[in-house]
Prior knowledge:
Helix content is 31%, strand content 23%. The relative contact order is 0.16. The strands form five sheets. Strands 15-10-9-16-17 form a five-stranded antiparallel sheet. The chain has a domain at 238-301. It has eleven helices and 17 strands.
Amino acid sequence: MLQDSKYCRDCGPLPVNHKEKYIDSFIDYLLPKINSKTIYRLFTPIRWLLKAIGLIRLEKDFSRDYISLRTTVFTDEAKKQGVICWATRTPFGYINEFVMQIGKKLVWFEGLPCTELSNSRYSMIIDDKFAVKKILKKHNIITPEGRSFWFFQKKQAIHYGLSLGFPLMIKPRGGSISHHITTNITSEEKLKEGIERAICYESCFIIERYLPNTHVFRATVVDETFVACVERVPAHVVGDDVHTIQELVTIKNTDPRRKESPNKNTTHYHIVLDETSEELLKEQGVTLLSVPKTGKTVFLQKKVILDLGAELIEVTPIAHPDNIKLFREVAKLFGMKIVGVDLIGESIERSWKNQTCAIIELNSLPYIDMHHYPYTGKPQNVAKAILEMALKYYA
């Protein structure tokens, strides 16, 4: 059943259009895939034509309020190095298209440069979670056991889930930032609910094994070499034996790094208290008026959605060398010059070989600002690594 509400509990506080996403996904899975280098060559002349006839224009002094922060951290770094960047604007506003000048060469890019350099046969399926899962499995890289189903295959999906065994996880085959996922499913009733939740968002969904007691890590790999890694933590507060949970939330939301959503010029947002928060508090045996003991963590959201108040902990310096090597191997396997790798595991400090962990998905256009503006830890200059790569390949 399709939803078409302005706001959605499973997507966070930002406005969404489920019907549009649903139809786009349906078409995307049916169309043949073309690698990104071919698409770049096809569309670059079209871009210049649109500029020539005045349908788009390039702006050097563009407003940060309308551009994704993952792009502005890159353009800021480029400016430091004397590289000029322009944003593309239409009569309806900015779009996620940019131009950078390297020497005498003008290079178009979407969000971040160099994605068009990925000429692998896998480059166009990076955001297809099930296609990625099959390739990882084929190359003996750790990934949860699972299968993909269409919206009309509910009965087969339920039968498969029951045969796979609990706990389970259900997620849309595409999408990102934890939209419409259901974790730690332990009953047939919750299994059915998870399926309905997923197909409200996309035409295809995945049922896979859920790994309990694990943390979520995002690694960004640049040019198959540079790696930065953060831990993503759901919205929470830590007790101090003085303040109530409500007061701790208020205090945390006064942090100037946190903004109201939507706001493109920030990485962290105010903690949102909603129905999920009420359910979690009840499970933890507390209320908003409870005073948690010093050091006691109280979770307020299940998902690591930044718009709901999730936090980022920079963990690159403590990541085990085996894990760094794994991230590089994945980027090389898929032939991606820039890629986000999501790993769930018990600890980033231990080798993936010695713990319960798995790679759950990849992202072709990662939010690199999370490494520049972690809530805790030393920032990692991913933008500089991307700029150096761009200069290497385009100069």
